[in-house]
Specification:
- α2 runs antiparallel to α12.
- About 80% of the residues lie in helices and about 0% in strands.
- The protein folds into 2 domains: about 190 residues, MFS general substrate transporter like domains (Growth Hormone, Chain: A, Up-down Bundle); about 200 residues, Up-down Bundle (Growth Hormone, Chain: A).
- The chain is mainly alpha-helical and about 425 residues long.
Length: about 425
């Protein structure tokens, strides 16, 4: 597809249902990865789960998600994103059914692992479609829409899931998600089409593996890998793990008040993702706005680490600012995509996506050990000093990642035309 052809596709009526469908499957992914927290007490009571089993149940999604990234990348470049999205949707539907019908911890964990596998390609396969069918200067904007609107799934995994669980139960709620996923899978089959260019012969397995090695050897790949370790994990550290306990242990806020603060961060991240997305065209490169976003994220965490406690109004502003400044991830994704020729985009993005998931594992695991170094209050609350150290360590991690990332290269023609040759080839 030429760039002019891509432009026509982007301006046609086909683009809206295409983008809406791809965003919908990502909403499912965001919902499922964040859904355990709300229903964990229900699961523990009904299936007699121990704390260790609850922890395994939560983490196995991300383990499965990360484990399939490299084979997923090979499949994307070998078979195309359409087939990968359809297979992923099918696995997700099976996973929701297994999860909803589970009568033992083992089956429940199996269902959760299937959900991680099924949704593993919901972002990178969608980005591969955007890389094929839209001009390169639109990629970061579309990525921003994908990530920003997709975050609605995170919202639905909080209060709406609680309401649904109270009304119809968690099992029926997950069966409903499965039915929705099946509908989205049918839409994928109808509206998503791979690049119409002849693919020629399919790669052999050895050639696919050689493509992974080519991705690893790509200049600046290691630097972007390190930056990806810190970028997504920063938002996940606060909103996905320690933000709620911090608000309860330090300020005494209850469930509803915690939800409001975290909701503020999610909402500003949605807005921020769409506003940060086009900043590569404003700045003329990817690196400057990524460093700005990462630097302000480190500053926000550093300030909270130094101050420790904020007044109610300032705390709301902090969560709002934090959600916004950490929303630069689409620019980092766009920078990564721009490093690779089109036939390696799928593998390149999945390797970087694995870094994002792996970084979240690393940060959350280390932070848990750090907090355990401090004594726990009789009521189970963690010390303020423990939270301050966790925030400071993450701020330092971001700054170290920025130092590594600072030496990365930009594509020769910048975000406006770096992939033009590949797309029009």
């Amino acid at each position: 597809m030429s760039i002019s052809g891509a432009s026509r596709a982007a301006s046609s009526g086909v683009a809206v249902p295409l983008v809406a469908t791809l965003i919908s499957i990502y909403i499912v992914s965001q919902f499922l990865r964040n859904s355990i927290g709300v229903i964990a007490p229900n699961l523990a009571a009904e299936l007699v789960l121990s704390p260790a089993e609850i922890g395994l149940l939560s983490s196995v999604f991300f383990l499965a998600f990360a484990a399939v990234q490299i084979p997923l990348g090979m499949a994307l470049d070998r078979f195309g994103p359409r087939l990968c999205l359809m297979v992923g949707a099918a696995i997700t539907v099976v996973g929701t059914v297994v999860f909803a019908l589970a009568v033992s911890p083992g089956v429940l964990i199996l269902g959760r692992a299937l959900l991680g596998m099924g949704t593993a390609g919901s972002l990178v396969a969608s980005l591969a479609v955007y890389a094929q069918r839209f001009p390169p200067e639109r990629f970061a904007t579309l990525t921003g829409l994908q990530v920003g609107i997709g975050t609605l799934g995170t919202l639905m995994a909080t209060a709406p899931l609680a309401v649904s669980t109270a009304a119809i139960g968690w099992r029926a709620s997950f069966l409903a998600v499965g039915a929705f996923t099946l509908l989205v899978g049918l839409l994928i089959a109808a509206v998503v089409h791979d690049d119409a260019r002849p693919r020629g012969r399919q790669e052999t397995l050895s050639e696919s593996l050689s493509g992974i090695l080519a991705v690893m050897r790509t200049p600046s790949m290691g630097r972007l890998f390190v930056m990806n370790l810190a970028a997504y994990s920063t938002f996940g550290l606060i909103v996905g793990l320690w933000g709620g306990p911090y608000l309860t242990h330090i300020y005494g806020y209850g469930l509803e008040e915690r939800g409001v603060f975290l909701l503020v961060a999610v909402l500003t991240q949605i807005v921020g993702s769409m506003l940060w997305g086009p900043m590569d065209r404003v700045a003329g490169n990817h690196k400057l706005p990524v460093l700005l976003g990462a630097g302000t994220s480190a500053a926000a965490l550093g300030a909270l680490a130094l101050i420790g406690m904020l007044g109610p109004s300032m705390l709301v502003l902090w969560f709002a600012a934090f959600g916004f400044v950490t929303a630069y991830v689409p620019l980092l994704i766009a920078h990564g995509k721009a490093l690779f020729p089109l036939h390696l985009v799928g593998r390149g993005l999945t390797v970087l996506n694995m870094a994002s998931m792996g970084g979240t594992f690393l940060v959350q695991a280390v932070s848990g050990f750090v907090i355990e170094l401090f004594p726990t209050a009789p009521d189970g609350a963690y010390e303020l000093a423990a939270y301050r150290l966790v925030f400071a360590l993450q701020a330092g991690f971001i700054l170290l990642a920025c130092l590594v990332y600072f030496g990365s290269r930009e594509p020769a023609q910048g975000p406006r035309g770096s992939q033009g040759a590949s797309i029009s080839a």
